[in-house]
Amino acid sequence: xxxxxxxxxVVQIGIEKEKARRDFYDRASKHFDDADLKDLFTxxxxxxxxxxxxxxxxxxxxEEPQTVESYPGELEGYMQALVDDYLYQEVTTDAFDAVVKSxxxxxxxxxxxxxxxxxxxxxxxxxxxxxxxxxxxxxxEEERHHIVQLIKMRKKLS
Length: 158
Hints:
The structure is a single chain. The chain has a two-stranded antiparallel ribbon. The protein has helices at residues 7-31, 35-61, 74-83, 86-90, 96-99, 103-127, 130-157, and strands spanning 4-6, 65-68. The chain starts with a strand and ends with a helix. The model has no long low-confidence stretch (mean pLDDT 80). Helix content is 78%, strand content 4%. It has one domain: Ferritin, core subunit, four-helix bundle (Ferritin, Up-down Bundle), CATH 1.20.1260. α1 (7-31) packs antiparallel against α2, α1 (7-31) runs antiparallel to α6 and α6 (103-127) runs antiparallel to α7 (130-157). The protein has 7 helices and 2 strands.
């Protein structure tokens, strides 16, 4: 019998990524002295914390099977690859100081994280039943808003 992907399972993957982004923004908020940067990174950290709570609430409500794998482990392996990508490994708390040399570096990493979130949600949307796509689309829209905020700050610094 094939394994089933549940929205709740993928929501857990989303939670892990949201935690990584929250931790990155928390570190960035403490790394720079500029008040506007501190404010942006603090707001992003808090938004990601809000997303974690939203994901947790969604995960508690959604438990129905969503999609059948074509072979055992297919979706778990693919979704794990999305979670364990290079970007998240490169900017760990320990490596932050080594790879983030400027505010623009931090902003660019943030933009990469947000794009990654959108990619995860797009993949998720392609795997779930249509009645659950709306939730995924709402989360994608919030991540797009984060990108806009980061790009505005990058332009301000230029």
